[in-house]
Design a protein that fits this description.
Strand content: 5-15%
Radius of gyration: 23 Å
Number of strands: 14
Distance between the termini: 69 Å
Shape: globular
Structural class: alpha/beta
Strand order of the largest sheet: 1-4-7-10-13
Largest sheet: 5 strands, parallel
Oligomer: single chain
Order of helices and strands: HHHHHHHHEEEEEEEEEEEEEE
């Protein structure tokens, strides 16, 4: 042990870690001045967005009717700058080369950030229906303020609805980072590409998974542990998964799915259906039907 050459060991390790073959698929080569999107800054963007959508509940709690316009204006201005920079990083990440030194990406990022901010009133309106659904669906809730402040579903849905808008605007990488932040925070895993209607809620929330090609209607309620997943992954001739095909369930309006139910594949759960706890569903359900395990006597 006394003759062990620490310096040589570290040098050898650096050389091995820098070998091209060991970096295959694991090394993102940065264009100068264009780093990856920052998780820390995206967290700040989410907090700013939450404070704009739900003033007084997130961010500065001292906001009132006299200061609301200033509060929102200052946050919107900051949000635009931060989001534009992060979208720029996302666009540069997805772009192999920037022949114009990123000028086109900068203009595109500014445009997307502005168009996203224009969507915030609509995102707020939809989230208001989610808050209403959570409040009316939980007799333990004292008021809507408790729903906004405490319920993980609202935090997860805020991230999802923000990420979904950015996904629709073809922003690379960032939407997925934002929904994974909510996944870490709440235990609710919603892919940003999923389509979810108004008055959506998840009771308790932990362990819920909503896949990328899911389509969820209006007034749908899920409980904890529900999986809306894919039944199988079709492969191409080379044995690789075929991307971009619909493979997750469609839940029509007014569906209820109870805890730990698993619904797999591109099947349709018809309007008004009820899926009981711990059920495994891989076939279509006609509107108004129920799939519930009967308790043994």
């Amino acid at each position: 042990m006394g003759n062990y050459n620490h310096s040589k060991a570290l040098t050898r390790t650096v050389e091995r870690l820098s070998e091209p073959e060991s970096l295959e698929g694991l090394f993102h080569r940065h264009t100068e001045g264009n780093p990856l999107p920052s998780g820390k800054v995206l967290e700040e963007i989410i907090e700013l967005s939450r404070s704009i959508i739900f003033p007084g509940y997130f961010g500065k709690s001292s906001v009132n009717t006299r200061t609301i316009k200033f509060h929102i204006g200052a946050n919107v201005e900051k949000l635009y700058k931060l989001l534009s920079d992060q979208i720029m990083a996302g666009l540069c990440f997805a772009c192999a080369t920037c022949p114009d030194a990123g000028v086109h990406c900068r203009e595109k990022a500014n445009d997307i950030a502005a168009r996203f901010i224009e969507r915030l009133p609509d995102i707020r309106r939809t989230l208001a229906t989610d808050v209403d659904a959570a409040y009316k669906g939980d007799p333990a809730a004292v008021n809507v303020g408790e729903i906004i402040s405490c319920y993980p579903v609202i935090k997860a849905l805020t991230n999802y609805r923000i990420a979904h808008e950015l996904h629709l605007m073809d922003v690379p990488l960032i939407p997925r980072i934002i929904t994974e932040m909510a996944h870490s925070e709440t235990g609710i895993d919603i892919h940003p590409a999923a389509t979810i209607g108004h008055h959506f809620t998840i009771d308790h929330g932990t362990g819920v998974v909503v896949g990328a090609t899911c389509i969820i209607g209006n007034n749908v309620k899920l409980y904890q542990g529900v999986t809306l997943g894919a039944k199988s992954f079709p492969l191409d001739e080379a044995g690789n998964p075929i991307k971009g095909i619909p493979r997750h369930p469609i839940l029509e309006d007014n569906v209820i799915v109870y805890s730990n139910a698993t619904i797999l594949g591109r099947i349709t759960i018809g309007e008004g259906c009820v899926v009981g706890a711990n059920m495994w569903v891989t076939e279509d359900m006609k509107a108004g039907t129920r799939r519930i395990k009967k308790l043994k006597d």
